[in-house]
Request: fold
Amino acid sequence: MDIRKIDDTISVAPQITYGDVAEAARLGFRTLVANRPDKEEFGQPAMADIEAAARENGMTWIYMPVASGNVTDADVDQFSAMIRDSEKPVLAFCRTGTRCTVLWALSAARTTPAREIFTKASNAGYDISGLAPRMAQQSDNQK
Reply:
């Protein structure tokens, strides 16, 4: 499992398996978020199985699917509320971790300077420089 820490509240990962969930719980994650639609790709683990493992390991399960390459402002609103209200730390996953990082970055742009967001994402291995215009828009529309 390739967990990439963004900050103390959230880490992201590429697709996890049923067996990875116990390890995530052992590492202290309290909430598990799936940002990948079920059956997005042939052979992908079933979300119902990962949900069952999360519950078996005492984690809160949140299924928040977002289409790859199509993160909407409504998705950002939902992700922002989830980060605010969930028990932390949160582990969010999708196919590569990028979608989760984009959701986090656009959500964080409402309250955090862009340079800090870019640095945290880069330190986790994600180049989100192309998000600058959308981050500026989120910053202008702080909630």
Notes: The chain is about 45% helix and 15% strand.
